[in-house]
Design goal:
One of its GO terms (cellular component) is plasma membrane. Its main location: membrane. GO terms for molecular function: ABC-type oligopeptide transporter activity; ATP binding; ATP hydrolysis activity. With 583 residues, this protein is α/β, with parallel strands linked by helices. It folds into two domains: 15-328, ABC transporter type 1, transmembrane domain (ABC transporter transmembrane region fold, Up-down Bundle); 344-579, P-loop containing nucleotide triphosphate hydrolases (Rossmann fold), CATH 3.40.50. The chain has helices spanning 15-28, 30-62, 67-116, 119-125, 127-169, 171-177, 181-218, 220-225, 229-281, 287-298, 301-326, 383-390, 413-419, 434-439, 447-456, 482-496, 512-525, 539-542, 561-567, 570-582, and strands at residues 344-352, 358-365, 372-376, 398-403, 406-407, 420-423, 500-504, 530-534, 546-551, 554-559. Helix 15 crosses helix 16 (482-496). It is 64% helix and 10% strand. It has a six-stranded mixed β-sheet with strand order 6-7-8-3-9-10, sandwiched between helices. It binds adenosine-5'-diphosphate. Residues 353, 356, 359, 377, 379-385 line the site of adenosine-5'-diphosphate.
């Protein structure tokens, strides 16, 4: 994790990890897995029985079978066809279910792991990588487990069973049956190498078309206003042409490839018929055996084609699975520090983002237990960075940020999330009831406590909700505006009842008139907690116990409002400038 070249990147699972993951999925659902494989084997067996029995009938007629015996075996042949259909259908259905269950498990453990990752790790990995894994890759793995995997398994099992059947009929002819194998192996390897990039390029070209069309449609007014129709049309046409080029690539590949695939079953068919014929004349094999094995070779067509077709999807699904499983290889950060008390201290803190320059330069700040400290300063001074360090999202480069004497970034997340809460302007409203949205912070809180928390943040809109706490929130249900979402987030803080609350512009979305009111109510509710409020609006500063002015990554001034005004320094000039604007 500390290797600089890998710094931040989410890992990708290697072969051993993938094998482990597949093994885990199989073992967890072993009864169903064994059942599905048994069904596939039986279905393939029933399919292979047909040519074998036909061979028996041919030889039987030659050796004087009675008509009723021939009828019996022919009846069995028909039964085999029906049995194969039924078994395969059942096997497919169970196989898809098994795959879906496995995919769900994988998805759940992926999400659980991602949610346990510290925010700083997620941010360093880049939300793009994580988003691709969460949406595209997880979907591709589900497709692999529910469809491509079972189809591939059906194909491979059928190939094996047909081969075994050929050897059972006649080991000599079985050897001839294998003459298709080299063509199959060569074709499969080549296809695997050539097909994946071609399919990937086709998909990329397809999403480019979608992007261009969406952009043109979304910006249609601009397009019309600037008379860009021709240009946008040409762009769309160029993309479509590039996509067509990719499609031609696929067709070219398949044009070469399919005849090669045909060789896998045509070669042994010809070899078995010709060589088998000669061997029959020599008395080494019977006509029935030659016919049976020749027919078995012709049955290769289906499974060869099926497994080849799934091959590139199988490979791409495997690559997606390696990325999904990769998150489990993230080393767990060892966070075992135990805070003794609730005092927050920043001492000589130096910090910079990634490889960037320092944005905090030896900063020290000691919020007192239970005080309301307001941090002010110009934009870009480092206020939010201080908030992130106190919340344990980032680690200082040097110096220390501690909670009750323990480095905050070493306190286990489950402990930290209960004791220190950072509220920013980004508020997420989950698609769930209002009650569920609030209970996230305090699962045991009853309705009375939830209503009390909402009243504390002056969320009067709750009274107008159609179903009170049972109202479904979220874009498709009852949408909340920014101010309401902020009040919801603040109500959660009250319910969570932490020792330390960091409010980073937390009331910025609420209109200035009621923001003051919300802050006053919040301050009353959080009485006794350490509140560190980061503010652009200086009105919050006036009532603070203490004010810290941050400039260029350092504390420029610290003290009470009246004191700092009297001192006539950085705070005084900020204050008068703000008053001037506000007046
Ligand atoms: P403030 O909250 O006082 O406006 P910040 O703490 O957000 O200031 O930013 C302090 C400095 O750190 C700024 O120079 C800003 O550009 C930089 N910074 C903030 N966030 C990041 C980030 N995620 N990556 C790189 N630089 C950042």
């Amino acid at each position: 994790m500390s290797a600089p070249e890998n710094a931040g990147r989410l890992p990708v699972a290697d072969r051993a990890a993938m094998f482990g993951a597949v093994k885990r999925l199989v073992v967890e659902d072993r009864a169903a897995f064994a059942g599905v494989v048994a069904l596939y084997v039986l279905a393939a067996g029933a399919g292979a029985a047909l040519p074998v029995m036909l061979g028996d009938v041919i030889d039987g007629i030659g050796t004087g079978w009675t008509a009723s015996r021939v009828d019996l075996v022919c009846g069995a042949i028909v039964a085999c066809v029906v049995v194969q259909l039924v078994l395969l259908r059942t096997g497919r259905r169970l196989g898809y279910r098994l795959g879906e269950r496995a995919a769900a498990k994988l998805r759940e453990s992926f999400i659980a792991r991602v949610l346990r990752l510290p925010l700083g790790t997620v941010e360093r990995a880049g939300t793009g990588d994580l988003a691709t894994r969460t949406s595209g890759d997880v979907g591709a793995v589900a497709e692999l487990l529910r469809k491509t995997g079972p189809e591939m398994a059906i194909g491979v099992i059928e190939l094996v069973v047909l081969t075994v059947a050929a050897f059972v009929v006649s080991p000599l002819l079985g050897l001839l049956f294998l003459t298709g194998a080299p063509a199959f192996i060569i074709a499969a390897r080549r296809y695997l190498r050539l097909a994946s990039p071609v399919f990937l390029a086709e998909r990329a070209a397809m999403s480019e078309i979608a992007e261009t069309l969406t952009a043109s449609a979304a910006g249609s007014q601009t397009v019309t206003a600037y008379r860009m129709q021709g240009e946008r049309g040409a762009a769309g046409y160029a993309r479509a042409e590039s996509h067509m080029g990719r499609l031609k690539g696929i067709i070219r590949l398949q044009t070469w490839f399919f005849p090669a695939t045909d060789l896998t079953f045509l070669t042994p068919a010809v070899v078995v018929t010709v060589v088998g014929g000669v061997w029959f004349l020599d008395g080494w094999v019977t006509v029935g055996q030659v016919v049976a094995v020749a027919m078995l070779t012709l049955r290769l067509d289906g499974p060869v084609f099926r497994s080849m077709m799934s091959l590139s999807e199988f490979q791409m699904g495997g690559a997606a699975m390696a990325r999904v499983e990769g998150v489990h290889l993230m080393p767990d950060e060892v966070r075992a520090a135990v805070p003794e008390g609730a005092e927050v201290r920043l001492d000589g803190v130096t910090f910079g983002y990634g490889d960037g320059p320092d944005v905090l330069h030896g900063l020290s700040l000691h919020p007192r237990r239970g005080e309301r400290l307001v941090v002010v300063g110009p934009s870009g001074a480092g206020k939010s960075t201080i908030a992130r360090l106190i919340a344990g999202i980032d680690r200082p480069r040097s110096g220390s940020v501690t909670l009750g004497g323990a480095p905050v970034a070493d306190v286990p997340l489950e402990v930290l999330r209960r004791r220190v809460i950072l509220v920013t302007q980004e508020h997420y409203v989950f698609t769930a009831t209002l009650r569920e949205n609030l209970n996230l912070a305090a699962p045991e809180a009853g309705d009375a406590a939830l209503y009390a928390a909402l009243a504390t943040v002056d969320a009067r809109w709750v009274a107008d909700l159609p179903a009170g706490l049972d109202t479904m929130l979220g874009e498709e249900h009852h949408g909340l505006n920014l101010a309401e979402a902020q009040q919801l987030a603040l109500a959660r803080v009250i319910l969570a009842d932490p020792d330390v609350v960091i409010l980073d512009e937390a009331t910025a979305g609420i209109d200035p008139g009621s923001a003051g009111n919300v802050e006053a109510l919040l301050a009353a509710a959080l009485d006794g907690r350490t509140v560190i409020a980061i503010a652009h609006q200086l009105q919050a500063a006036e009532s603070a116990d203490r004010i810290a002015v941050v400039r260029e990554g350092r504390i420029a001034e610290e003290g009470a409002h009246a004191e700092l005004l009297a001192a006539g320094g950085a705070y005084a000039s900020l204050w008068w400038a703000w008053k001037g604007v506000a007046a």
